[in-house]
Amino acid sequence: MINKIPVITIDGPSGVGKSTLSKMIAKKLNWSVLESGKIYRLIALLALNKKINIIEKNIIPIAKRLDFILIKKKI
Ligand SMILES: Nc1ncnc2c1ncn2[C@@H]1O[C@H](COP(=O)(O)OP(=O)(O)OP(=O)(O)O)[C@@H](O)[C@H]1O
Ligand SMILES: Nc1ccn([C@@H]2O[C@H](COP(=O)(O)O)[C@@H](O)[C@H]2O)c(=O)n1
């Protein structure tokens, strides 16, 4: 079943405090933290494994199926 708990995610450069701040906010709101950098890296890994050229039109279908891929562990 897909987790319906709201998530917070903060984008920005490395080491600026995204994780620290998002964990603090998530704790206060009882939300989950979504680390967007991990999603980008996972999509890149899937594209590399499947030898897919990393251009927008190829990446969008992978991103759309990401929840299915994660649930079925089809990486
Ligand atoms: N408001 C703050 N003031 C001073 N130091 C901070 C603050 N917020 C976070 N830090 C410190 O800065 C460092 C980087 O923080 P954090 O890991 O939250 O950043 P990040 O943006 O998530 O990093 P990464 O991109 O590497 O995942 C940590 O050592 C953290 O303790
Ligand atoms: N493949 C990636 C990875 C990250 N980003 C951006 O960088 C930010 C920092 O990511 P971290 O995981 O190192 O905290 C992230 O918020 C993204 O904006 C990216 O564009 N592509």
From TrEMBL:
<keyword id="KW-0067">ATP-binding</keyword>
<dbReference type="GO" id="GO:0005524">
    <property type="term" value="F:ATP binding"/>
</dbReference>
<dbReference type="Pfam" id="PF02224">
    <property type="entry name" value="Cytidylate_kin"/>
</dbReference>
<keyword id="KW-0808">Transferase</keyword>
<keyword id="KW-0547">Nucleotide-binding</keyword>
<protein>
    <recommendedName>
        <fullName>(d)CMP kinase</fullName>
        <ecNumber>2.7.4.25</ecNumber>
    </recommendedName>
</protein>
<dbReference type="InterPro" id="IPR027417">
    <property type="entry name" value="P-loop_NTPase"/>
</dbReference>
<dbReference type="GO" id="GO:0006139">
    <property type="term" value="P:nucleobase-containing compound metabolic process"/>
</dbReference>
<dbReference type="InterPro" id="IPR011994">
    <property type="entry name" value="Cytidylate_kinase_dom"/>
</dbReference>
<dbReference type="GO" id="GO:0036431">
    <property type="term" value="F:dCMP kinase activity"/>
</dbReference>
<feature type="domain" description="Cytidylate kinase">
    <location>
        <begin position="8"/>
        <end position="72"/>
    </location>
</feature>
<keyword id="KW-0418">Kinase</keyword>
